[in-house]
Structures are given as structure tokens and as C-alpha cells.
Amino acid sequence: KKTDNGYLLDGMRVLILGMDGYLGWPLALKLAKLGCKVYGIDNMLRRKLVDDRGAQSVIPIETMEDRVKAANEHLDVEIDFREMDLMDRDSLFAYIKEVQPESIVQFAEIPSAPYSMADVDKACDTIQNNVVGTLGLLFGVRDHAPDASIIKLGTMGEYGSPLTGRPLFEGLFPGDAVLQYKGEEWSLGGELTPRDPVSFYHVSKVQGTFSVYEACKYWWLRSYDVMQGVIYGNQSDELAAHPSLSTRLDIDEWWGTVVNRFVAQAVIGMPLTIYGSGNQLRGYITLKDAMQCITRLIAAPPEPGQYDVVNQVTDVMSVKQIAQTVAKIGAEFGLDTEVQRIENPRVEAEEHPYEVIHDKLKDNFGFASESTFEDEVRGMFQALMQPEAVARINAQESKLFPTTKWSGEVGEL
Ligand code: USQ
């Protein structure tokens, strides 16, 4: 099937690293439905880490074996899944050699900022898994599939929030950017925009960015580095085909992102946990839109040696705005939601400018948003007000309130 920007996905071999995750599974379904030959690995670490925390996905999910069967039954697609750790380089390289992927999506990372700040072991595990995993992968691509395009999931949090108000350019400075210093002007065009990460997890993503950037330079690999905003929601056309195809949805302090957490809190009548002033601004995007963006990047690969960056967000919102909208939509479902402002457990700016440039996906790849914040939140309320989901939220109520402080101090907030 031709996409509307003219590229062929039908028959394209795509390897998804981290296929069991929140993003990996919906992407597998979407690509398979579009006619790609979809291959994937996962070490099942996310399930274990969430379980270790005493938390669980609020939407029940099947084992990988059953998911693959359900995809075949309900969507009529074949997905090749292998349980494998990215760190097991012998197995990984053999699989890359066997599959000869044309596109490789790197989602096999530990994605939690608070987890990475909780203690030394968790910080080191995050860096080890994410940074060393990506570095090893790059050698595997160089040696066994050098023409494959690499879609690397980075994060908007790599940039931080520059207090000067300088725009967050898409990875590289535009050609007309200049630095004035001691009366002289210097062009910055094409240089990587500065990074100022906001947790050790975000540091791991910055290191990934540098590894990929260098690999494209040294070995003529090709990559899009995706500066991903905070993702929320649980919907896509393929996920909706049957409940056994659902993707995970976490809501505890470590594994849930803010919008997903707020909806769950509202469902059980817990006041929404706004950290600090609530004026922190971030870029957000729904799961469905994020999957569309990644698909478009796969369909239009970079040239050999090309390293490019896209900022993948649709809306910039403050935490306070999010809480107010969640409370408003909760009222449509008969919920009376309070918001609470609690001491911010993180070290982050709470009053800051935030001008995100996010033009490339629209202008160069044909992305058009298919979902809105309010509709997605409405859909989440519908899903999370089902009795099974309510029971699963209640069962982890004690894991919803934040306890992990960036300062390392232990104690009540
Ligand atoms: N926040 C609250 N209350 C909460 C939870 C979060 O006020 O109960 C605030 C945080 O202080 C932060 C904002 O909401 O300012 C977003 O927090 P988050 O936990 O939703 O997102 P974050 O830690 O930034 O990480 C998430 C994903 C990560 C991804 C990142 C994109 O977990 O994998 O890389 O979003 S970004 O934030 O753009 O870097």
C-alpha cells in the first residue's frame, strides 16, 4: 500500500526493538496492518519492573505469545516475535543478519525519569540498558544491515527548558542561527542544539543521541532521532479490533506519564497530583498520533549518512491545564475531581518559556493529527471506568502518590 507521501510500506521488513512495550506493540500492529513484514524482540523487562514496584497495567494485557496469535486471528497479520535482550549481542546480530531489516525502531529502553533517580542501582541500570544497548545495536547495524534506517526514540526532555526562551529547534540549529561573542558573529547552522537533560533517564537519551549522530558520521548509517513529547492515551484503530490486542497502560509514580496518571486518579476520587506550581510546560502527543509519526518516518527513510532530528509533539500544555481539563471531562462522567498542589519531588523549572519548533513531521512527512487531547482523555475515562480497570487502579493506590525525590532525601513530601 502506498502511503500518501508516495512510499511503499507493503512488504517492507521492519524490526521493532522493545515490541512488548506501551509503544512497541501498537506500532507492530499498525505496521503489520499496513503490509510490513514485522519482526520484534523484547526482554520482557518492563513487565518485571512494573511488577517489582507493586504496580500493574490498568488495562489487562496478554502474554506476547497470545498477542501474536490474537493479531493473526483478529487482524489477519503475521508478526515474528523473539524473546531476546538487546544486550545479548550474539543473538541480536544473528537476528539482524537473518531478517535483513530495512528499518529498525529502537524502543528497547527503560523509559522512566523517576525510576532513574530512585537509587544508584536504578540509575546505573537505566544508563547501562539504554546507552550500551543502543551503542551495541549501532555496531550490529554497521556489520549486518548497513542500509537499514534507524528510528531512534529520544525525548523532548533532552533539551530541558532554556530560561532564555531560545526556541527548541529540531535537533540541529537552523542555517541562520548565529552566536554573538565579544563583538563577533559565529554561525551555528547545522550544529547539535545544546542538551540540558532533566533526569538520569534523560541523560541516557542524550548519550544515545550522540552515539547515533557519531555512527552516521563514521559509518554512513542513516537515522532519524525522534525527540518525543510525553505520550498519553491507549487508543488506535488496530488496538480497538479486540480486547486481547490491548497495549499496557501504567499509572503509578514511576511508569505512568502525567495524563494517564491524572485520569486514573480522577477515576478513584484521588486529588490530582500537580507537582509544584503546575506551570511546567511540556510537549504532548497521543499514542495514536505518535504511531502515525513513526510510521511516516519509516516510510520515508533518510539518505545514507544522514542524521536528522524531529520534534514529535502536537500540543504544548502546562500540568495545571492538563489537570483542569481532566477534571472538566471527569465531570461529564459524574466525577467530582479535586486538584492538589504538592511539593515538587523533581528538580525542574516551574516557570519558564517553552517554544518548541515542530514543523518537520507536518511539512516534510505529511503528518496530520488524528486525535485531540479532550477526545483522547474522554476515551481513557471510558476505558478506566470499567470495573476491572477500577479494581486495578485501587489495588495500586499507594503507588500513585510520588515518593521519589530528585534530591535523594527520603521522607514525606
Ligand atoms: N507531573 C506532575 N504530576 C504527576 C506526574 C508528573 O505534575 O503526577 C509533571 C512532572 O513534574 C513533569 C510533567 O508532569 O513536569 C511530565 O511528567 P511525566 O512523568 O509525564 O513525564 P516525564 O518524566 O518527562 O517522562 C515521560 C516519559 C518518558 C519520555 C518523556 C518525554 O516517561 O519516557 O521520554 O515523557 S519528555 O517529558 O518530553 O521528555
| Portion of residues within helices | 25-40%
| Contiguous runs where pLDDT drops below 50 for at least 5 residues | none
Strand content: 15-25%
State the CATH class: Alpha Beta
Count of individual helical segments:
13
- CATH homology superfamily: NAD(P)-binding Rossmann-like Domain
* Quaternary organization: single chain
CATH-scheme architecture = 3-Layer(aba) Sandwich
Overall SS class: alpha/beta
Task: Please report the total strand number as a whole number.
Answer: 14
What is the N-to-C succession of helices and strands? EHEHHEHEHHEEEHEEHEEHEEHEHHH
Task: Tell me the Rg in angstroms.
Answer: 21 Å
CATH topology: Rossmann fold
From the spread of the alpha carbons, the general shape counts as: globular
Mean pLDDT over the residues: 96
How many separate domains?
1
Can you give a write-up of this model?
The protein has about 425 residues and is an alpha/beta fold. The chain has one domain (about 15-400): Rossmann fold. Helices cover about 40% and strands about 15% of the residues. It contains 13 helices and 14 strands. It has helices at about 25-35, 45-50, 65-75, 90-100, 115-120, 120-145, 200-220, 260-265, 285-300, 320-330, 360-365, 375-385, 385-395; strands spanning about 15, 35-40, 80-85, 105, 150-155, 180, 185, 220-230, 230, 270-275, 280-285, 305-310, 315-320, 340. The protein has a seven-stranded parallel sheet with strand order 3-2-1-4-5-8-12, sandwiched between helices. Strands 9-11-13 form a three-stranded mixed sheet. The radius of gyration is 21 Å and the shape is globular. It starts with 12 loop residues before the first strand and ends in a 19-residue tail after the last helix. The mean pLDDT is about 95. Sulfoquinovose-uridine-C1,5'-diphosphate binds next to α8, β10 and β11.
